[in-house]
Design goal:
This protein is an alpha/beta fold and 263 residues long. The chain has two domains: 157 residues, Aspartate Aminotransferase, domain 2 (3-Layer(aba) Sandwich), CATH 3.40.640; 94 residues, Aspartate Aminotransferase, domain 1 (Alpha-Beta Complex). 37% of the residues lie in helices and 16% in strands. Helix 5 packs parallel to helix 7.
Amino acid sequence: LGLLKQAKPVQFPDITYSFYPVYCKLFGVEYQAVPLGPDFEIQTGDFKTPNGGIIFPNPNAPTGRAIPRSDIESLLSRNTDSVVVIDEAYVDYGTESRIPLLRGSACPENLLVVHTLSKSRALAGLRVGFAVGHPDLIEGLERVKNSFNSYPLGRLAQAGAIAAIQDQAHLESTSKKVIHTREHLVGELADLGFETLPSTANFIFTRHPKHAGAKLYQALRDRGIIVRHFKSPRIEEFLRITIGTDEQTNELITALKEILASV
């Protein structure tokens, strides 16, 4: 909020993390939703009007699609009058982080990369995150953070966060397991006729061309399997499926086979 509440509207994709518009309405921040492309990709070239800032996840949620580094560099070079915030909550499952862009003398003054320890490091209960950016941006955040941050970090949260960040081997091991299971699930779903967007997140976004997403969602729920279904335009036929264990994935595939066979 300290960076994005400006005279001009903040911009983000029309299909993205649902709390962006919620926070804007809560704090009175004007915003514009920029439509995704025909394949549900973020097209950075469409962020071309004057704005008070741009924010998006990379990879995006709920689609799981990532943005190439070259597209982000092009956006930064064009959008020089406001901050670009890249939310890398799901970056550890196959997306290249943009933090390296901030190293050295070429550090962009308008780029802020934010991370959470709630996803790949499985520390959601600690409510820990961090931001990496140009020193001027970080100094600005330091000046205003105590007015908006409702989750000050205690000693236990700080100790847990430091330990998790230092244990890179564990992060890589668990992330590789998620990636392997994700690819296995996508293959199994393809055999059942599902169409799945390319994902580098710990979830996939998939649909079946012959079966309504709402009915598939309810049929899975009736079997005790919870996935997410959205009623929003363009994505009402999709299911967002979190990557679980191999055993959970096999249960999901078995249930879907039964559901499709019974329709």
